[in-house]
Design goal:
Layout (H helix, E strand, L loop, with lengths): L7 H8 L3 H4 L12 H7 L13 H11 L2 H25 L4 H18 L4 H9 L4 H12 L10 H13 L3 H13 L5 H13 L3 H13 L7 H13 L3 H13 L6 H13 L3 H13 L6 H14 L2 H10 L1 H7 L1 H13 L5 H9 L9 H13 L3 H13 L7 H13 L3 H14 L5 H13 L3 H13 L6 H14 L2 H13 L6 H6 L1
Helix pairs in contact: 5-6, 5-7, 7-8, 7-9, 8-9, 9-10, 9-11, 10-11, 11-12, 11-13, 12-13, 13-14, 13-15, 14-15, 15-16, 15-17, 16-17, 17-18, 17-20, 20-21, 22-23, 22-24, 24-26, 25-26, 26-27, 26-28, 28-29
Amino acid sequence: MMKRVLRVSEFRRYQTITVSSLNSLSTITKPSVPNQFIREHVTQTPHSNGSQTVLPDIISLFSDKWSYNTAETISKEILREKVAKLKDEVVEQKDDVEKLEKALDEKGVSLFRRYPDGSAVVELLTQLKPFPYLAMEILNWRRKQLDYAAPMTVEEYAKGIAIAGRLKNVDLAVELFKEASNKQLKATSLFNALMSVYTYNGLVMRCQSLFHDLKMEAKCTPSIITYNILISAFGRLMLVDHMEATLREIKELNLTPTIHTYKGLIAGYITAWMWEEMEKTYRIMKAGPIKPDIDIHLLMLRGYAHSGKLEKMEEIYEMVRDHVDHKETPLIRAMICAYCRSSHVARVEKVEKLLRLIPEHEYRPWLNVLLICLYATEDLLEQMENSINEAFEHKAYVTTVGVMKCIISSYFRHNAVDKLADFVQRAEHAGWKVCRSLYHCKMVMYASQMRISEMERVLDEMDRVNMHLSKKTFWILYHAYQRWGPRNKLEQVVGMMCKHGYKVPLDACNSL
C-alpha cells in the first residue's frame, strides 16, 4: 500500500510523462514525480546502474495500477470525504434553519461550484438518507441558489423526486418533475424516479400513465429500469397478467433483464400466492447468467414460509441464516407462522428457538395470539398461560370465537376449571371476545367435580353479560341435577325446557 495517497491532479500530471521522458527520469525535477514515488515503484535492472530503469515496468505502472477507473475511484472517494464533512455540519444544525442555511452558504456553495455536474449535491442527499426531511430542506435551499451557483441537473431533480416519494409527498415529487421538464431537463431517469414514487405510494395507474408518456417522448426512451419499476408496480397489486405482459415486452425489445427484473417477478408471484410460478422464476435464475442474490433468497424464504413448504424454507434459511437472524425479524415471524400452521412434530421447539431471536420491543399482538393457539393445541398449559398473560400486559385482545374455543378446550382437557374461571374473568374485563362456550365449559367442569353452587353462579355471570340461556345450557343443568341432585331443581329445569319448547329427555318423564 502506498504511504501517501496521490491527489488526482498529481496523477494526471504523471500520466503526461512520455516514453521518451521516462528514459531520463533522473532529469525530472520537482514537483513532477515525487522521489519517494520513484523509489517505491521504479525498479532497477539486474545489470544497470542506479540511473537506468526498466521502461516496461513504468508503462505497466501507469497503464494498469493507475488506470482511468482508479483515478475515477479516487475522485469519488475524495468527493465523499468532502461531502461527509458538510453533512456532519448540516446534521448538527438540523433543528435551526438559519444556522443550517448559513452552513450551506459558507461551505455548500463553494463545494457545489467545484462539481457543476451536480454530483456533490447528489452525494450529500445520498448521505442524508436517514434524514429525509433534512435532505428535502437542503434540496429546497439548492433550488433557490441558481443565481450564483451552478444550475441544477437532472440527477439532482431525480434524487429530489425520490426523497419526496419516501416522504409520501407525491405532490412535491410531481412539482419537481414539472420544474425539471420546464427547464428542458427531461430524461429517462427523471421518469423512472417519478414512476417509482407512484409505485411506492400505490398509484399504479398514474405510474402506467407516466410510462406511456415516456414512450411518446422523442428524446428519451424506456430503459430496463423503467420496465423493472412497472413489473414491481403490477406485482404489488397482483396484476400478474400485466406483469407478465411487461416481461414479454422486455424480451421483444431485446433488453437484458437484471436482478431487479426477477426480484419484481418473484415478489409479484408471492403477493398473488402463485407458488409454482415463483419457483419456476427462481429455477430460471439459478440456471441462467443472473444468479440469485441475498434479496432473492430472502424473497424465496418468505414465499416458502407463506406456502407452508417447510423443507424448502429450512433449506433457504440455512443459506441466509446469519443475515436473517440479525436483520430480518419479519422473516423470522413468517417462519414462526409457517411452523404454527403445520403439523411438524418438532414445531414447538423450532418456534421457541426462533422466538429467542426476536427483540422484546418487536412485540406483535397477532403473533402473541398465534402462540396462544399453538400452545393450547399442544396442551402446553403453562406456556399458553404465559402467552395469555403477555397479551393482557400489552393490552392486546382476542376478537374471534375460534381462538377462545381453542383456549377453553385446553383448560378442559387439563380439567383446570379454576384457571379457566380466572381466565374468563380477566377476558371479560380486557374486552376479549366472550362466547357461550366459555360459560358452558365452566358449568360442565364444575358439575363434574360436584361443585353445584359454583355451577349455578355461572348462570348469573351469563346474565351479567346479557347472554340468554340456550337449549345446551338447560341440558348441562339437567344432567348435573340428574346425577347429583337436588330433585326439585331437576324438576325446575325440566319445566323450563318445556316452557321454551325444548325436547325433554324420555328418562326425565319416567323419573318424574
